Automatic annotation (TrEMBL):
Keywords: Hydrolase, One-carbon metabolism, Purine biosynthesis. Belongs to the PurU family. This is Formyltetrahydrofolate deformylase. Coiled coil: none annotated. The active site is at residue 225. The keyword Mitochondrion does not apply. Residues 86-262 form the Formyl transferase N-terminal domain. Gene3D superfamilies: 3.30.70.260, Formyl transferase, N-terminal domain. It comes from Amycolatopsis rubida. The gene is purU. Its EC number is 3.5.1.10.
Amino acid sequence: MTQFTLTLHCPERSGIVHAVTTFLVSNGCDIVEHQQFDDDVHGELFLRTEFTCAGRSAVDDLTREFDVVARDYAMRYRFSDRTPDRLLVMVSKAGHCLNDLLFRWRAGALGAEIALVASNHEDLRPMAEAAGLPFVHIPVTPATKPEAEQRLLDLVREHDIDLVVLARYMQVLSDELCQKLQGRAINIHHSFLPGFKGAKPYAQAYDRGVKYVGATAHYVTPELDEGPIIEQEVQRVDHSHSPRALATVGRDAEALALSRAVRWHCERRVLLNGTRTVVFR
């Protein structure tokens, strides 16, 4: 049995689920997991179905045959098999998110394959190479930024990358690059934004006596740190936390939120809904 996932969204109307299940049953498929969400505010239906299919092994065949059903309901849909997504992880100097992703990847819990690591600094080369991964150094200056971003796109093409993960990559991507990677790049930042900007957000948070520390994983868009949110992790803190302790809690939150977002994306559990997301956990 080959296992597939169907994700779709379309305008709400009666008969959608019946049409999907009828198609699957008529093709000898067995549903393993099914989730749906009716967005009554915008009149849209979102659906994710995992199924096995005897005698089927090609996504293209299912796509071609389902297209007749999809047209009747104005569906935007995708069939996927169990082939793991290939990741390009972008980093700078902080290694906590990369370390967490590497651990989950080697444990088989990431739902994807890390293909390589790229960075604008050399600091994390030992970590990547110790995991047996290629490490590509791409220096970035204001003068060389266009060339650096083109090199990134070249890596995406050369290594058949499905998802770019900005694991504390401390460079702002150009609007053009964000548009080219739309829906295929995930970023992580501390949830203090935009309240605490700059290089030392945790020191600012300490000065204001925050009671929560958090992190947000989101899709990359030209609007800096304002892309559709996939996951947020929040932990309570109090007056006893120093700036260093706050940063430690924050790093844990960042690593957890990012790894969840990456896994859910690669398992086709995240569907875009305008500036929001529908996440089938």
